[in-house]
Design brief:
The protein is an alpha/beta fold. The chain is built from eight helices and twelve strands. It has helices at residues 11-23, 34-44, 62-72, 87-95, 108-122, 161-172, 180-188, 197-210; strands at residues 2-7, 26-31, 50-54, 77-82, 100-103, 135-138, 141-144, 149-152, 155-157, 178-179, 220-223, 227-230. Helix 2 (34-44) packs parallel to helix 3 (62-72) and helix 4 (87-95) packs parallel to helix 8. The longest helix has 15 residues, at 108-122. It is globular. It starts with a strand and ends with a strand.
Length: 232
Amino acid sequence: MKKILFCEDEATIRDFVVINLERAGYSVYSAESGEEALEMFEEHSQDFDLALLDIMLPNMDGFTVCKKLREKSDKLGIIMLTAKTQEMDKVNGLMLGADDYVIKPFSPSELVARVDAVYRRVNMIGNSNNPQDMIMTTGIFTLNRKTRILTKNDVPVDLTQIEYQIMELFMSSHKIALSRAQIMSSIWGDGYFGDIKIVDVNIRRLRMKLEDSPSTPSYILTIWGFGYKWDA
């Protein structure tokens, strides 16, 4: 069963989301506060595939819950729910490790589509039976597609599922300039509803993890007015 940790303090929204996700085949564990959500995660951490978090929560906001969950798991898919449209809310959530965000109000079909997309990414595994196809190396970086681990100078780098997929795309397209639209289509799918800036935020996050000097990147290069290129 596909299991989701859902945190929302408004009962009407909580009931609406639970009903629609259960209809879509998910088992939903709902919490009314950030503290309760973290307690549920500690109790059932091995069971959850996704967390769906409202930003505006009492006491502990969704950003804090997102950060704490990401510290506990880099495999968990995280989607933020927000009624706000300010750019910084989207960026803050993504920089803290969220995989996506959905702006209220949203339709049941949009919510389920976004949840399904993140769920598929979280549960992706390598399809090749050839061990040689499982290892990708460029320069000092090695990506093991079976264990889904990236190393830099043989030291593992903690990546979210989205970051891993971007690196897999980059390393399979070494020195090829990729547009933001190409990256979005490859990682989030052609039917993605969100803002293309989600690509830039994830690139910024990757640079903070991979570059010796994130402000002057050597590996993930910006192609101005177009996109990015991996050159290791």
